[in-house]
Design brief:
alpha/beta, about 55% helix, about 20% strand, globular
């Protein structure tokens, strides 16, 4: 499973790109607007931080297929590298996806809430489909079960499309998606930290440090 960071916070991106095995960064209009400032300066700085080889997903703000394609081509030209344009599921989005597939521009179809939406997006040529896990849980749905069903459908029909699960509230949801064979998750920096955190791990490390200090004081292996 691939881990992607879901933010446009440059400090968080720099930190997580250094300390975690990130496959890239995802953004959307809400995430971008939260940071404010010049749009192009922000997304180009994200590309600079993560490099050309990691994925960058940026969402179109257009509402017609023709304009979505036009904006996607501009984004690809300006940002380069491993790039995917995010497009919400819908008739215009499907039309744009089919055209962008021909042009060789990857599409992440977003705002997915049902396996049926994901399947038709994959058939249209989307490289990724992005189901919203926690938003489904919030309306008494089962977000991780929807992820599982989408994974199964893509495998059943041998479609060249991956699940990029989004909208997470906690690390347990990420864990369940991994158990169900989800290909990729996009999460906040806080959730990334929670994935590797455990009180027993902290206790074990503290024990190692205490026992070493009892035998060797403040010397390290480098000092010996």
């Amino acid at each position: 499973m691939l881990y992607i960071l879901d933010t446009a916070d440059l400090a968080a991106i720099k930190h997580c790109n250094e300390f975690y095995p990130l496959a890239g960064v995802t953004t959307n209009p809400s995430i971008i607007s939260k940071e404010g400032g010049d749009f192009w300066a922000l997304v180009k700085e994200i590309r600079k931080i993560i490099g050309k080889d990691k994925m960058l997903h940026v969402q179109t703000v257009q509402t017609t297929a023709e304009k979505m394609v036009e904006e996607a081509k501009l984004l690809k030209k300006e940002l380069g590298g491993d790039f995917y344009v995010k497009i919400p599921i819908g008739e215009e989005g499907l039309k744009a996806t089919m055209e962008l597939k021909k042009l060789g521009i990857g599409v992440t179809m977003t705002a997915i809430f049902t396996p049926a939406q994901a399947l038709i997006a994959a058939k249209a040529g989307a490289s990724f489909v992005a189901p919203y896990v926690n938003r489904l849980d919030n309306i008494i749905g089962d977000g991780t079960e929807v992820v599982a069903q989408i994974v199964e459908q893509l495998e059943n029909y041998n479609l060249d499309c991956q699940v990029l699960a989004a909208s997470f509230k906690n690390a347990e949801q990420v864990h369940k998606c991994a158990l169900y064979g989800c290909h990729t998750v996009t999460v906040s920096a806080d959730i990334l930290k929670n994935i590797i955190s455990h009180p027993m791990t902290d206790a074990a490390i503290a024990g190692f440090e205490k026992d070493w200090a009892g035998a060797y004081g403040d010397k390290t292996i480098l000092d010996m």
